[in-house]
Amino acid sequence: MSRDRIYAEDREALDAFAFDEAVARVFPDMIKRSVPGYTMIIPMIGIITEQYAQANSHLYDLGCSLGSSLLAMRHGVKVDGCKVVGIDNAAAMLKRCQSYVDIDTATVPVELVEGDATNYDYSHASVVTLNFTLQFIPLEKRQALIQRLYDAMLPGGALILSEKISFDEPEQTLQQELHWDFKRANGYSDLEVSQKRSALENVLVPETAHDHIQRLKQAGFSKAYTWYQCFNFTSFIAVK
Fold first, then answer.
1. Which whole-number Å values give the CA distances from 114 to 64, 111, 142, 181, 210, in the listed order?
2. Global pTM?
């Protein structure tokens, strides 16, 4: 696993963060050292999938990146006739994702799609995962995407939504500082923390937990709960 040193050198000008080849190369290390609870969330996606996957249905992973959540879903399927579809608009991420799918031991069919998750034609879905994906989608498109997923979902299906969230003050400052401390404890320097934060500004736009729950309920989900949180990173489950 390549070490993430993308922001280790001081730069006069920073480009906006993008899921390009440089990020794809170090992504496993980056997300493990940057997202509190990530290594807990991934296997739990498999457990949730096992409970909610329905026979002869589609399972979708939006923003599948290198395939960690996609493969957890694949291994969680215990019923017949399912297919897992991973969607991502970053070619560099999908290329590496395909290599992981190719060596995976599970037998559930997988299809990888390069494209815009907000425009995909979803159908007959029993489990949908957005694992730190919605936060990169423009605010004005988020409700329509959640509605599209709800409309394509079978009764009893589940949506797993993991996000970085924001808070009212003074909790926002506390949670933010704890997150930065987490990154420093994992070997990132103050310079790396600062430059990554600047690169993500206006690219990753977080919302409150209340915003997410309200959006899920507005789409029609009968149940919407927080099932995991570590500092300012959380994961929700919504059931149709």
1. 10, 10, 19, 35, 31
2. 0.96
